[in-house]
Amino acid sequence: MMEIQSKNNPLYLDVYNDILNKIDTSVYKPGMVLPSEQDLQKQYNVSRITVRRALSDLVHDGLLERTRGRGTVILPKKNKEDLYELSGFTEDAKRNGDIPTSVIIKLDEIKCPSDIAKFLQIDEHEKVYYLKRLRLINGRISGIFETYISQRFPFKISANDFNEKTSLYDFYKENGVIIADAVETLESIMATPELKREMFIESDMPIFYRARITYDNNSKPIEYSKNYYKANGYKYVVHLHRKNETVSK
Fold first, then answer.
1. Which residues form the HTH gntR-type domain (predicted)?
2. Percentage of the residues of the chain whose pLDDT score is greater than 90
């Protein structure tokens, strides 16, 4: 029996930190089932309320997942994305040491919806390529990406151009299109019935939504993407710079 005693931290936080340390040091590895609440209660010599509070916070922070009929499972570490650098899904995953793959749900030429056309700076109902993919990290569902690609560039897209490992940004590069900038909108939304079905989400839960307009080196919009992520799988880091004011003498 391990007795936790801290003069500074509440007991639940000591339990939280000990489990977190075991996750960071791979004592608890992704996919493992955590000991039951009763076993943890005995292990740490604390009340069940204390254990539940620690587990609840770990679930909230995306480190654990409660699975019906199985128990509390250790989740893979969140994929960290740096919002200071423009990169794609495949690049981000590989940088984190993960394996990215995709399932092509739909690839077609469609008339561009009017709300998307204004972002792409094209005529309303002008044709665009529409690419919808289920994105996976290490075989686990990460999200759904819908991408509207302008046809005002010197390349054509067909089903033969994409497979489970294809990076859209690499495709642009191979066709002489240089990605330079992007504008993003980030927000938390509730999953629609369609997204729940496609992402295999069982319960009502918020998901992470990212809309991105990507521009080439001539400031021309290449694509508009609507990306929906499982919120417990991602962490974003934002670099903030404070502008120094000139001190009057």
1. 9-77
2. 39
